[in-house]
Queue: 3 jobs
Job 1
Amino acid sequence: MSTSPSLGSQLRQIAESLAREAGDMALRGRKSGPLTATTKSSPIDMVTQFDKASEAMITEGLATLRPDDSIIGEEGAAKKGTSSITWHIDPIDGTTNFYFDLPMWAVSIGAVDEHGPLAGAVYVPALGEMFSGARSEGATMNEVPISVRANHDIADALVCTGYSYLISEREVHAKRVANIVMKVRDLRRFGAAAVDLCFVASGRLDVYFEEHLNSWDLIAGQVIATEAGAIITDYVGNPVTPSQVLASTPGVHADFIRLIAASGPGTS
Ligand code: 2AM
Ligand code: CA
């Protein structure tokens, strides 16, 4: 007897196909001509014509495939629908990397229902990697199941973080990071929150922590990392919000919370 796919599975498929379509368009555009960039929240917070084109492509796709859903997008998409589903879209996460032609940028599309994050896809076009997940249905990279790294030793942990575009918020974080880097294997800063979350999910990183994100940076990667076995909270172990994100393999999560607490105050 065949059963129809769950809603989470259907939304995951939609997220994958729209992320792939928009990401491949942006990658082709990036390779074929000049970029026009303007700035947003600070002189180093950029938006290019491909951020806007990617968001337009995704919202047009959702208008056809999921016309009753709500939408929140980084480049201004805002639609109040009538269903219980809201899509959170980052048309290019890691725009600075995109601008500098570094490969760590992604299209991030996540769907939330009344219980929280339900499904999502994070597509990294320059690496040819499609991460996706749905609640209670696991996470994959290019169709292959992924899981977090087995590690219980914080001294062995490869840790990733990110800095806000607002220079005023960087000082406290820089001091915190200066302490943390002494206590772990090493530190990385890749510059795309959704990619960082997927790298924790696939065991390429043990820990990712960052403040001052938005929902579109978090939702898709949160589903994927959670389904891959990661624990995601704020810096003190409470439910995660975009303003403070700590995602890690379970064996180092409590120790990392203690390490953050011992490394200075937060910026929020
Ligand atoms: P973006 O590339 O879509 O702008 C880099 O640290 C990561 O955090 C990226 O995912 C970036 O998203 C996001 N980010 C950095 N500073 C931010 C800020 N002040 N507000 C929102 N998102 C930020
Ligand atoms: Ca973005």
Job 2
Amino acid sequence: MSSTRYRAGLAVLAAASLAFGISYFRAIGSKCSAQPAKRFERTVEAMDTFVTVSVSGVDEAAAAETMDAAFAEVERLEALLSRFEPDSDISMLNFASPGEAVKVSPATLAVLCEAARVSDLSDGAFDVTVGPLVALWREAGKSGALPADEDIDAAREKVSFKDVSLDAESNTVTSAREGLVVDLSAVAKGFVAERAAVVLIRRGITSGFVDAGGDVMFIGSNADGRPWRTGIEDPLKPGTVADTLYVRNRAVVTSGNYRRFCTIDGKRYSHIIDPRTGRPSQGPAGVTVIAPGGAAADAWATALSVLGKDGADAARRAGVEFLMYFVEDGEINRFESEGFAAFRKDGTNDQR
Ligand code: ADP
Ligand code: MG
């Protein structure tokens, strides 16, 4: 079982259990209201994980109809963005020759633009062409032997998103380099959560969320009119909550080095790669990002996993709030952006 599935599995389990439990990156409705509005929820396997859509404030028929529409959007976007679907926009792009302008859908262009923005602001720490390095380190994890320096250098040569140009006028994408492979793993789940939430909002939903494997886009307030309450998992005690957050109209995404990693010679290596060194990130054990949109939150959670504390200025310029966990001497040390504290307080943060 992949750890992504495991993580999502926890969320689904939490949804199924009626007891007040700890849910992993998952909304917990407040228990105070005398007559809480009814909440409708559905979970579907998609994006190589589980996607949950939850809505309230409408009757059952309207809820079913809006959830259908949201899942149709998830399916549509997955078909465009998957690297494994031969007809997807991303496959078309990956199979194109250098210099060939590939026409893509506006949604594909939008997620690539967000990826480009985060790449630029993070000075290349975020790079969706990092696949050859991911593959090299995955192989190393399987064989138990560190990759040779030459192999790392050769793979690094094939990582360069700045050689991919995006033309918003003609909706085309052009790679200037042979062998570049775009893999949107680090941004697609957040993007899809965001777009599915937009579908719900357009259909009049003012309270709900879309959870794509732990990358959550919250709409409005919860069914009781309170901010959504969500927990960040303790990297030292998986399954328990280390921090509780309260958000309205925000995406909350966590990238953790502690859950997905490989071990070589007894040392743990993250699944997030620093494209500048060609080696797994040595950064924080976990990074949680709160942002207005899911794509930015997802991409920045990955970018800040590479940059660590050095990424604080870039995150500020990008307008995202973050909390990093560093595990040192068996303890969690936190490092967070200035605006993050507002999300620790129930009801006092009043963003729209
Ligand atoms: P998760 O998949 O657990 O949600 P992330 O959003 O952080 O975590 O995405 C990590 C995935 O993104 C990796 O498995 C890999 O495919 C890809 N990746 C690794 N390093 C980078 C990077 N520096 N920039 C962009 N994508 C990356
Ligand atoms: Mg990410």
Job 3
Amino acid sequence: MMERVPVSTPSPRPLLAGLDPEQAAAVRAPRGPVCVLAGAGTGKTRTITHRIAHLVSAGHVRADQVLAVTFTARAAGELRGRLRTLGLGEANAVQARTFHAAALRQLRYFWPQVVGEVPWRLIDSKFPIVSQAAHRAGLSTVTESVRDLAGEIEWAKASLIAPEDYPAAAARQRRDTPYEPSRVAEVYIGYEALKSSAEGMLLDFDDLLLHTAAALEEYPAVAEEFRGRYRCFVVDEYQDVTPLQQRVLDAWLGGRDDLTVVGDANQTIYSFTGASPAYLLDFSRRFPEATVVRLERDYRSTPQVVSLANRVIGAARGRIAGTRLQLIGQRAEGPEPVFAEFDDEPAEALAVTKSIARLLGSGVPAAEIAVLYRINAQSEAYEQALTEAGIAYQVRGGEGFFQRPEVRQAVQALRQTANRDDLPDARGADLVTLVRAALARLGLTSEEPTGAQARERWSSLVALVQLTEELVEQDSDLELPALLRELATRAEARHPPTVQGVTLASLHAAKGLEWDAVFLVGLADGTLPIAHVLGEGGTVTDESALEEERRLLYVGVTRAREHLRLSWALSRSAGGRKSRRRSRFLNELVPENSPASRIAQPADRRAPTRKHPTCRICGRPLLGTTSTMLGRCSRCPADLDVGLLTALQDWRKEKADELSVPHFVVFSDTTLTAIAEQRPGDDRALVSIPGIGAKKLRQFGADVLALVHSRERAQAHKSAGEK
Ligand code: ATP
Ligand code: MG
């Protein structure tokens, strides 16, 4: 007689369909330790969800005895969603949670048995208490310092390091500490004391995990009840586990071995938070009888992208690298990745923007395009260029440049300077000096500071000074009030779009995500790898930190499904000294016949670089995005048809109202000015204006050309009449 399967339980057969042989082997492995070592896009999440469903449907375990954990709420949601489609939702639900959410639930339940009456409260931010502890220790309480201190405390707790051991551990791990390690330890001690001296007990997220582990370790009744309830454990992204989370996992297991883990050591990019791939790499040593499965087929990216990914990680060194697997692309062929070198960052941003416009024109949705960079301050040039081109975007995992607290404070400080009665008459180079002086009070030092948050803040301030320099290049008479007006206009034009746009994100924030087209930008040595892992003259001081930087590039490359462009610039600002080189990670990768390889020679032997755009009036090289878009320098007289510009502005207003979008989404001011100056006669002339791609041409080309033509006819008519 056929076995009757409960309605809500998935049947085993379809669970194995749609899996390759290695995935199926991991799914079918008997209960007990299983380790899946899987590269990016190889189907590891798919494999573990199918494994859970298989164990449940085969009757090896009940759905409610399974606990699946991962690290972010988004990933846990993804896991639950996929389990639901496999029939493991609602009545037959498997618990899929983050470590923290699972611990919170358990602690709520066990607290009365363990601690009794003492009330406790979970704090959602360490910030106020760390700030208080910093104040008591006589340290600064400015936001970035406190955040860096909180980051160190978090790292120490995640790494199971007590305050008294912090200085030695920080030295061993070459932590980038905001203060002398002994001062950080003092704040750590103060922070813990403040939390427990409060009324009741205050627990932070790390305490949740610590108390859960301790309850299971020290209270046999708690352990017995828990272990009777959960029998099977699954961990996704296991390379991200911290010693503290591992301790919780061990407490859950209590000597049992029913554990499936999935991870990719070569995607370890969070070591600075305490995450360690050592547990993944040591899994089969700890469980010698474990089933170990390696997945190599990449279902996400084209063979061209996969090949580059293999070469990036192929050059890695050290223990983690020893575990890498060659990915084998399963998708149809696609375009080769493109490498491009530029003279300066504005030129790079403009070229990337033009490529994005072309992709949009060819039908790639904006939501399927991403620009990824190493540090958040790099977003500024791209926000500006995309705004000028009228392309909507959103900054992921952080605010846009002008929304950042340090940039708002800086603009505010400049406003106060402008309001001073004794405002010096500063223009041009003097204006740059004035701005530097105003920002010096907000932390703009000549040396890059230590501490990740402090460095982010500093980089934003540097970007603001560079923006000032660029504007001064364009107008040597620029004064502070005009600078402030320009900054306000730029901030205003960059309000978050109402439609979904192109994604701007740091490489860290891009982890686990994927897009059809990915632009990896700013790949200069000193940015990726980031300067502080390098010593004097670019020598490597910290080999393991350098390897983590390489893995960041690997994570970046593997986000692309189809189109991938890698670029860098030789100087930061337009016309600046070309003192940079492309990332050392790219040296072996740029193909021989690539334009980037021809121009990326050492400075003295460099072939003539790609021609810089020149002014169509005076012929001098153009500096800065706006002048490049206009095709002339700001000092050259504009051969602007004011009547045409007015007509274009009226038309744009109507169009924007009709489409319910802000007017710059139709065309930016710069693009309209360029049209009114260049008076394009046909489609070709029109698309040669930056900011106008195939899509805009389709949408608005006919309207714009009609306006230009009717204006020319009117002019011809007028001059004929005058003769
Ligand atoms: P990441 O490294 O980003 O976490 P992953 O290894 O978890 O990726 P999945 O997200 O599970 O990979 O799978 C990547 C994509 O490949 C998904 O769209 C998935 O449906 C698809 N995929 C996985 N395995 C197969 C398969 N055997 N046949 C077809 N498609 C597959
Ligand atoms: Mg996954």
